[in-house]
């Protein structure tokens, strides 16, 4: 009986210790049951995307908040993103090595625990230290946990099904991320910009602490859920078997696979673009929608003023944060529709088309047409929506057992987000204009466009590269 099963499966039975419930692991489960298991796993892991989406989107209002409260310059506020994405750069490779040793699920658990610690560090930073540096430390710790989670979750989603659907599957999972991007600016506008700070009065960080304390508690709950569930295993021997059986897996080292190396560079430049746009969107909206006329009187764009009255915003900064909420709705819409469109249009072509659209949008932003260009800015998020998941999935295609290590390099490339905001802040301070600093996002979207168009040729070169 055992021999018959072995010959049919063309592989030996698993070690009994790997089947804690006593059920043979190779007993040909019904296709519906297997698909259901993968779907549940995908939904569970996708919930993690909501957590880091919220953390990232909160950064969009922190820049302006610290400029107002702690009187830091735009260049200095850019170091918020440096502390966050610098943590990704430093922790991605150690996280990948850890995940390679302990597996995806344990890597996720460790990441969640570190995120919770970082969120709770906002309490001493806001109540006792009350310094910009203290908040940067809290953000660095929180982001170290996010780096571990992303290093595990992103590649895990790409292999939870057919590889041809990896880009769409990751884009769909990232849609959970987009929902958080909608909520966070609204929370920031209501709590962080809910009241003005009066000069000479003690700094009150109460509105900032509430969302991070709640975040820490939610993360601990998610940690408890992941502690008790069992995700489908795709580690160790299964990775090796799939790599050996799949003739399409590229044999060359990662450095010789141009679809991967170009993907790393493209992701670096794209993340620099995305984070740069996010970091100074509030600044740009305020500068473009509220101007002074020839007599020196302040003139507010009628649409901006109307939106502020509708949302009952307590300040222009809050109104600008609520404009970002609209941008995030477009971002989420792009994620959901992008996954569907990717089934009809080749992912690399869709990536290029969206890149072209954003290049045009950024050029209009740089034109700085007063009381007009800020209205165009939110559409930038619509076309950014698919870029990270598509670049990520495309660059990891056909890498077999090297996928985990390759994913860590992709996460490390997020360091582009640490470099762009300080540079953009410097340009804004130097030339006293937010419009000029959008030259850096333009470079990122151009790179994304090029990568999409040349991707098929790069993939062919990777397949032909010498082992």
Structural class: mainly alpha
Query: Architecture, according to CATH?
Result: Up-down Bundle
What's the CATH class, please? Mainly Alpha
Roughly how many Å is the radius of gyration? 23 Å
How many H/I helical runs?
20
Give the H and E element order: HHHHHHHHHHHEEHHHHHHHHH
Averaged pLDDT, please? 84
CATH topology label: Growth Hormone, Chain: A
Going across the biggest sheet, name each strand in turn.
1-2
Shape: globular
State the end-to-end distance.
41 Å
Number of domains: 1
Q: How would a textbook summarize the main sheet?
A: 2 strands, antiparallel
Please, could you describe this protein's structure?
The chain has 467 residues and is an all-alpha fold. The protein has a single domain (42-230, 248-464), classed as Up-down Bundle (Growth Hormone, Chain: A). It has 20 helices and two strands. The protein has helices at residues 2-9, 31-69, 74-77, 79-102, 104-120, 122-129, 132-158, 166-192, 206-228, 236-245, 258-289, 302-311, 316-341, 347-367, 373-376, 379-384, 387-395, 403-412, 416-431, 439-464, and strands spanning 290-292, 298-300. It has a two-stranded antiparallel ribbon. The longest helix has 39 residues, at 31-69. The two termini are 41 Å apart. Mean pLDDT is 84; it is low at 1-29.
